# Entry
Amino acid sequence: MTARPRVFVSYSHDSEEHKTLVRRFADFLATKVGLEVHLDQWADGARIDWSRWALRQLKAADYTIAIASPWYRRRTDGLESPHIGRGSQFEGAILRDLLTEDIEEYTARILPVVLPGRSIDDIPQFLSPYSATHYIVQRFVREDPGVEDLVRAIRRQPRYPRPSGELPPFEDGTYVRPATRAKLLLTRELTPVAKSSDLRVEAATLNGVHYGNSLTYRCSAFCNDPRGVVEYDLGRRYRRFSVTAGVLDDARDSRQIGHFEVYLDGVRQPGESAKLGSPVLIEAEVAEVLRLQLVAYRTDTTAHPMLAGARMAGGLSNGLPELAWGDPTVSV
# Structure
């Protein structure tokens, strides 16, 4: 959740006049509408890898505003020579790929805008100019019908809401992100690049809730490693990580306290602790993260195998962990 919707403006550099018009529109959206707008003309104060910058913007944006123009349509529809308008062609390829991945979600998140002097025919064909919604802006004022429709699309507020008794999404002054597609970490696509031997992929129950795709950290007589560690390569392909973590309901030691830590590219995030029957929800933003590492442990686990054997022979507890990461998930 964020205070303002994040918007990326995708357009082509048709002419200096067109660039100025787009910048004026972006200024208006940022200062008068209250959006968090990202525009290339505001980011050219240093040498930049523009393709990487555009990819980051497209991944991070809640909405992409596609500014219609003849050259933008030609380039993003893949009809231009490869060496002309490379930036627009690159952005068009990414947008087409997103629509192919999930046409319903990205039809709602890629918004074609027709500025003064342009027409519906300037909207790229892959954005369905005649069968899908578009936004014709005549004046840069809040009262302009095209602006009103655009803002409603970003806020997910229809002109005439269905009577339901539910609170509108902006009732409390916050912005609710568009629905995202979730992916469990425990899939063939996202297999760990490293994992402690005591960690197992299996179902787990935390506070009476069944989690079918979980990581459990249990040891038999002693732990091969006093911390259960697993690491994933996210490849900067995802936006958010979430998991429910806690002590397993069938734990023999009901008094144990589990500690859970998340590291993003080696940087430790605020940790969480959990007792039996009181799991914790852990979430983290991972939009620019390559490596995600999860660490679970008890502070009283006997670390050395020989000492663990001696304590077991003496009838003493080795503080063996019985912990789980329930259905760890990443979303785009």
Summary: The CA atoms of residues 157 and 166 lie 12 Å apart. Residues 16-33 form the longest helix (18 residues). The two ends are 14 Å apart (CA to CA). The domain at 182-331 is CATH 2.60.120.1060 (Jelly Rolls).
